[in-house]
Amino acid sequence: MLEEMLKNVREKSPLIHNITNYVTVNDCANVVLACGASPIMADDQKEVAEITSICTGLNINIGTLNTRTIESMVIAGKKANELHHPVVLDPVGVGASTLRTQTALKLLKEIQFSVIRGNISEIKTLALGSGTTKGVDANLADKVTAENIHEVVSFAQEFSKKTGAVIAITGAIDLVCNENITYAIYNGHEMMSSITGTGCQLSALTASFISANPDYLLESTVAAVCTMGLAGEIAHERLTPLDGNASYRNYIIDAIYNMTPKQLQEGSQYKKI
Amino acid sequence: MLEEMLKNVREKSPLIHNITNYVTVNDCANVVLACGASPIMADDQKEVAEITSICTGLNINIGTLNTRTIESMVIAGKKANELHHPVVLDPVGVGASTLRTQTALKLLKEIQFSVIRGNISEIKTLALGSGTTKGVDANLADKVTAENIHEVVSFAQEFSKKTGAVIAITGAIDLVCNENITYAIYNGHEMMSSITGTGCQLSALTASFISANPDYLLESTVAAVCTMGLAGEIAHERLTPLDGNASYRNYIIDAIYNMTPKQLQEGSQYKKI
Amino acid sequence: MLEEMLKNVREKSPLIHNITNYVTVNDCANVVLACGASPIMADDQKEVAEITSICTGLNINIGTLNTRTIESMVIAGKKANELHHPVVLDPVGVGASTLRTQTALKLLKEIQFSVIRGNISEIKTLALGSGTTKGVDANLADKVTAENIHEVVSFAQEFSKKTGAVIAITGAIDLVCNENITYAIYNGHEMMSSITGTGCQLSALTASFISANPDYLLESTVAAVCTMGLAGEIAHERLTPLDGNASYRNYIIDAIYNMTPKQLQEGSQYKKI
Fold it and tell me: CB contact, 8 Å: B65 with chain A?
């Protein structure tokens, strides 16, 4: 299944409109290129509708949101909905400030998202309308474990039902679900959390995958999550004793660039739960 | 010829004012440093005239333009003209939105540029006032080939005559011309298009070269284009099977850092056409 | 002494709020992660007070300041003061424009900083209210040498007394002082100046160190400066003939990631003067 998803990204090379933060934007652009898609970043209210119109998909990330760009997100999201383009929401740090929470809830209300991707604390905040987010990392108390996984799954499926979006909760174990089906994904490496923006990169990657596979939102999101996690594993094996998080960042993007559909198919560790 | 151009950059170490996008800005700064010049980024309307005044050259890139920074571009450009500083325009994605097209045309009208650098679709849009740009990459239909090269050359020379600027059209074959003379440059590697911002980097590099060689705008632009292309070749030879676009990005900047005038002279592949 | 400082960063993993420029922000985030702390970037006036409240320390960098973010810096700084959080000021390019000078002086007036870190030209400008800054690099005439070091020390201690902040003047020789005690630090490598943002990175690192060691502002600032300089040395030894400033950038962050307290203790070259 995943094999085809990556093949389609490389063959169709969808153009992805990103309204994202200035911290990890360069890595997001290079990740989109690495998987075979093409990025464009544009956030001015006067051009976002037009830019979205020439693209195949839209990725909205609230990482360094501000009053100017929030309005741009709404305009672009509505235009993408009108054109039936897939739209990803990455609610970075939602719950860490009232502005982030209100913005994310406003976006949820005004835009139909195809996929919502965040860590467990962010998704909980979105679903409950207030949260326990500490900064941009997941709160330890929220961690998905073998013990609470079924509880998290039913909560995520409920949220999927409410929003009509595929929900991707990423962490040590990743969960991707729609309202009926959930996949658990076991790829990845804990050192990925020592790099800024692996979550943002995954959201940009997800936008690329679902734009090339619009009829398979759930499966292509699983493919994107597996690609990122597997790249994290491949890159980790490549580390020498002198390498740290900066080289690891580069190696992960390199691994996505070099990933073949066959490699993805064979290296992915996921199952329906 | 090119040997001297690079020598001058390293000896004079010109300070370059960049008003550029937030996607590739870090790479632009490191490329300016790699070639021996010094970067400063500043985009507030209240300071751009002063910043330009202490610099030797100005690089304007509309990659993630917004209402606030467009005005800053105009102010800085006019001040640079007043001081007879060289100014580069990189019309990223012009034609992809009305805002980009109108902004680029406004900049062309209000500022005398020394060099305008873009892909063929961007330059066509600028020259014709409307275009076929798809995102930030050149439209395939616009591609410069052995068959249409003379047509493109006469169009580019015409545009140079109209604007008074050296025109640099970069792609598989690069063309650099003023109204009378055109150089074709054959350096580079196709994998460079898998990295975000090699175009932006080249514009920042060009600003560095022309600022150190203000009496040789055409030749120093050729030198900058050759430096970037040759760095792309050297970096490509260095790639191991596990390397991808992220490592390639670093290796290109590394190659610029290590490039000697002799190496540039010997590795450049260009001719008057 | 320094051993404990780094241990505390790794153990406490303080969350650091950064209001910084879009040029080097990604490297700042990765450096904060590399040393064991956690970064969050947020610059909208509506959220900076809340974001600072959930953090342990604040890092203010005026690298690409604009009217919108200047106000955010003031709000965040006042909130941090109210909560007794350590605050770092990095007055990038102060003296290069009236806006930068006025902003830095305004920040100094309204916020009590814990540490002010800059090159000698920037610190002189701050102390004197006007300056000789050429761009973002130190003016050669200002260079700290064996001959003028005692003069610089008494000037820096005077400025520390006036501001109540630890002063860190970084260059070939680094000086870190409060009003009574000065340390000179001899770590580092001249090639570090060929990378954009090593100064910004050091400020983010300093915010991490002082936030984990709030009762030892002077000593933890020395530890941060030694960490950065030692990482520059370790990374330089790792360079191959093909490596340049881009790889060096990655290797420095890698070296911070891998630095052990013992390595820092043994590799640091500093003395009270």
Answer: yes
Q: Is a pLDDT exceeding 70 seen at residue B135?
A: no
pLDDT(A130) > 80: no
C258 part of contact set with chain B, CB < 8 Å? no
Q: For residues B122 and B91, what is the distance between their CA atoms, to the nearest angstrom?
A: 7
Is B197 labeled as ligand-binding?
yes
Contact C217, C177 (CB under 8 A): no
Instruction: Please return the burial class of A109, using the count of CB atoms within 10 Å of its CB with bins 0-12, 13-18 and 19+.
Output: exposed
Q: What is the DSSP string of C110-160?
A: H---SEEEE-HHHHHHHHHSS---BTTB--GGG---TTTHHHHHHHHHHHH
Chains A, C: CB contacts under 8 A, how many?
Answer: 101
Strand boundaries in chain B, DSSP class E: 15-19, 38-41, 57-61, 87-90, 115-118, 166-169, 174-177, 182-185, 270-272
- What integer best gives the mean pLDDT of chain B? 95
Q: Is A172 an 8 Å CB contact of chain C?
A: no
Return the SS3 of B84. Answer: coil
Contact check, Cβ <8 Å, C245/B253: yes
The tally of CA atoms less than 13 A away on the side-chain side of residue C260 is 5
Q: Which two tokens stand for residue C41?
A: 């970037």
In angstroms, the CA A70 to CA A52 distance is: 15
How far is C108 from A208, CA to CA, in rounded Å? 46
Q: Which residue has the higher pLDDT, B144 or A60?
A: A60
pLDDT at A166 over 90: yes
> 3-state SS string over A71-111?
HHHHHHHHHHHHCCCCEEEECCCCCCCHHHHHHHHHHHHHC
Q: Which residue has tokens 């097209």?
A: B101
Q: What is the ipTM of this complex?
A: 0.95
Chain C contact for A145, CB < 8 A?
no
Q: Which subunits sit against A, judged by 3+ Cβ pairs under 8 A?
A: B, C
The residue whose two tokens read 């001081």 is B83
Query: Given a contact as 3+ CB pairs under 8 Å, which chains touch B?
Result: A, C
Q: Higher-confidence residue: B133 or A192?
A: A192
Question: Mutual orientation of helices A217-238 and A198-212 as an angle, nearest 10°?
Answer: 140
Measured CA to CA in angstroms, residue B56 lies from A51, A193, B13, B25 at distances of: 34, 42, 9, 19
Q: How far apart are CA C152 and CA B153, in angstroms?
A: 59
pLDDT of residue A177: 98
pLDDT in tens, B240-265: 999 999 999 999 999 999 999 999 99
Q: CB of C17 within 8 A of CB of C58?
A: yes
What's the pLDDT at C154?
A: 94
Tell me the C-alpha to C-alpha distance, in Å, between residue A201 and each of A96, A210, B49, C19: 20, 14, 36, 22
B·C CB contacts under 8 A = 101
The A residues from 34 to 63 touching B (CB cutoff 8 Å) are 34, 38-44, 46-47, 50-51, 54-55
Measured CA to CA, the distance from residue C224 to residue C114 in angstroms comes to 14
Which of A146-150, B97-101, B199-203, C232-236 is predicted least confidently?
A146-150
All domains of chain B in start order, with CATH = 2-272 (3.40.1190.20)
**Coil, helix or strand at residue C247:** helix
> Model pTM?
0.97
C-alpha span between C127 and A67 (Å, rounded): 35
Name the CA radius of gyration of chain B, rounded.
17
Q: What is the CB-side half-sphere exposure of residue C51 using CA atoms within 13 A?
A: 32
Q: How far apart are CA B75 and CA B71, in angstroms?
A: 6
| Disruptive mutation site among A19, A23, A47 for chain B (greatest number of B CBs within 10 Å) | A47
DSSP track, C72-110: HHHHHHHHHHHTT--EEEE-TTTTSSHHHHHHHHHHHHH
